[in-house]
Amino acid sequence: MNASNQKISPFLEKVSQINFDKFYTPRNRFICHVCTWLFFSVLLFLNYSVELKLPFSSSLLLTARGTINNMTVFYLFFYVLVPRIFKSSVWGIFFILMCIPASIYIWLSVNYFQFVILHYFGIDIHEGALKEIISKNAKQPYFKAISYQNVFGNAMLVIYSFSPPFFVKILFDISRLFNRTIYFQKQTLDLKLQNLNIEKDFLKAQLNPHFLFNTLNNLYGLVVKKDPSAPEAIINISDLMAYTLYESNTEKVPVQKEIDFIQNYFYLERMRYSADKDITLEISVEDDIDNIQIAPLLSFTFIENAFKYGLKSAENNFLKISIDIVNNIFYFAIENNKEKNSVKKTSFGGIGVKNVEKRLNLIYPDNHELITEDRESSFFVSLSINLT
């Protein structure tokens, strides 16, 4: 499907804009957990008090006992067992399902030991439907409390007891996962659309009639003078057009091809100026860059703007470009003169530069640094990209 035809519904757009990580700070996480357990505890208390008609103290005691059971199973399951299972085995889902019976055993064990402690201190329920439930359970042996007959007999009751907090946790995690999925889907679509727009914009730039007119006019002059550099200029134009038409429409290209493109473009633009102009391109690369790739045409906007807006003052004209690749880091710097007190040009605020910033944020988040400076007598741009 064409990226330009893919759309995200308004609802999913809103979901993708929710920043769970920003909201779910340790403090807010603690508050959410406390409020959730209080909510379920109130519901459990009402069940004992209203449904079973137990006294307030008995309802509160059994509510505390049930909440401790549920919290123990909940935190062991989600914060101990599940993370270890997913880190250690590809059979994570299978082992998580196997943890359900284990959770029942844990719940019954914690429940049994609570009854034993309460019985030791002489605490019991003395009236109602659950009369003497503590002493009855505390007096039985531990292995009888967790026997398979007891497990199967109480399985539904136990699952019913700890399933509400489990459901809330799973629902919340699914919402976070859904949010991240939609966010990255939106980022991917934005990147595809951005690449399409960039491809179109750069194609227009390369086929700009003014650029072609100047280049062909200079080439004509070389041919008339039978300059030996004319064939090389023709090859450079051919390579330039081939790169913009066929190769720069992918997300990444070999960094050597990008350097070749910059050299070809620089050479063709340099033809327009006399040899005494201070216009230089310095490239320094490591011995082996065959396996290094880079997003295409990220530096082109700055080079095009430098030639377009620079070199216009009567004196002290200069345009200097340097490219270095060291330890898989692409360093690009460009500086060109400007007239003092001149109005800032679109080279530092135009759509082209904003597109570059957007592409850098999408393709190299936290792996790039772009610096633009409007100095007193020059424009300066520095870009570094970690290509690993």
From TrEMBL:
Q: Can you name one GO molecular function term for this protein?
A: phosphorelay sensor kinase activity
GO terms under cellular component: membrane
Residues in Signal transduction histidine kinase internal region domain copies: 200-274
User: Which regions span the lipid bilayer?
Assistant: 30-50, 62-82, 89-108, 151-172
Q: Which UniProt keywords apply?
A: Kinase, Membrane, Transferase, Transmembrane, Transmembrane helix
Keyword Membrane on entry: yes
**Superkingdom of origin organism:** Bacteria
Its name, as the record gives it, is Histidine kinase
